[in-house]
Amino acid sequence: MHTQQKTPTPRFCHQLTVIAATIFGAGITATLIQYSKLPAMIPVLQSFTNEQAQFGPKIAIFYLPFIALMLFLLLHYLEMKAAYPVMRKNKAPLSHRQRQNGIMTFCLIKNSILLYFTYSLFNDLTVALGHERILQQWHAYLFLLVLGILFIGGIVRGILLEKKMR
Q1: Global confidence as pTM
Q2: Distance (Å, rounded) from C-alpha 119 to C-alpha 97?
Q3: Mean pLDDT, the chain, as a whole number?
Q4: For residue 8, which phi and psi values (nearest 5 degrees)?
Q5: One-character DSSP codes across 104-144
Q6: How far apart are CA 46 and CA 115, in angstroms?
């Protein structure tokens, strides 16, 4: 019986993760620097128009980055788990290329989410400081489109790799 080795994460994923984490860290740092300038109550839920749906304490500026960090860590964990061969009932283990496809899919999705949430943090900080919003409605739709393309692309590529194995 042939044992499979762990599939290494592509260098591109490491580099992309470092870049996204650096940008996220810059967003958190900028928020910490500007935190004392924030009013006691800031808009926490906004519609895509200029209306604020709800106000909350200024500590709420960190809610979204916390959620982004938790999603990033979850997807990073799944990316790491995708590198190892898993025995499946009535099927052969995934090939090296199939596992690498999973790693790349998780890598691209986790970093896209982190970058979008950082962009959203900058928007929240801008609005809380009394400036015009930078996050427009079409930006959210574009982000969802990119996520959908990454997700569906990973699935389709996985299916094609499985058919190629047969």
Answers
A1: 0.83
A2: 33
A3: 86
A4: -70, 150
A5: HHHHHHHHHHHHHHHHHHHHHHHHHTTPPP---HHHHHHHH
A6: 19
